[in-house]
Amino acid sequence: MQTVHDLNELRAAIAAFRAEGARIALVPTMGALHAGHIALIDAAKRAGTKVVASIFVNPTQFGPNEDLARYPRREAADSRMLVEAGCDLLWLPTVETMYPDGFASTVSVAGVSETLDGASRPGHFDGVATVVTKLFNQVSPDAAFFGEKDYQQLQVIRRMVNDLDFAIDIVGVPTQRDDDGLALSSRNIYLDEEERAKAVALPRALGVAARAIARGIPAEEAAAEAQTSLVAAGFTVDYVTLVDAETLAANPGADRPRRLLAAARMGQTRLIDNIAVTLD
Ligand code: PAF
Prior knowledge:
Layout: E1 2-4, H1 7-19, E2 24-29, H2 35-46, E3 50-55, H3 75-85, E4 89-91, H4 95-98, H5 117-120, H6 124-139, E5 143-147, H7 151-163, E6 169-173, H8 193-199, H9 201-214, H10 219-233, E7 236-244, E8 258-266, E9 269-277
Parallel strand pairs: 1-4, 2-3, 2-5, 3-4, 5-6
Antiparallel strand pairs: 7-8, 8-9
Helix pairs in contact: 6-7, 9-10
Bound molecules: pantoate (PAF).
């Protein structure tokens, strides 16, 4: 695996892939890799492309009171995992490369960015859309792979790619979970043993609520029950909401693809998860 820190080197490496006639897939990450990221690399490899992974802890998607400073950084271990997974190139830009002095542009995706995490984390999706646009322009991939765990992020990126005519296939990869069902996340390492044990209530509550909605129980009722069980398990709930799986609009009809999304805090750690609501 080639590792590059410099934009000119990256462009030369991409040109060499293109000269071989290769298609290129991008897997953007913020590092602290786990099996969820490796599933993205595997999916990209199965698509028969050269795989470029990026690691960049993007400061513009963290709010002032969020965990930018303590976000886990494990470059050497990440690099070993990527080699083992068969990644072809690791792009490790610096903050100065991504946001040089005088940087003044923002990509903002209205609508789909504004609710749920967009409401709880103002500016978060502007930071994501801006950095992903830069990564797309730097790597010029044919496809890019994102985890469904960050479901709203995936829909924001799909909207942006459509709106701005990026010729890039956006592939969503199902959430990878621990044996007990907790979605893998780089932030799970913040949980102490007791919090980790309680955190399983999140996927469980979503599963129960999704099945209830599929049986015809009103979504507000099922979501309220999920909230009650999350609070009983020790969570502070931000939202549990049923939305249209594509537009993220509230109150979707039963004839639409639907997704139940939740965000809740266990101690200092904010966890998100989501589940498709399918009719039995
Ligand atoms: O999902 C993430 O890790 C980040 O939001 C992303 C897409 C790499 C942008 O910084």
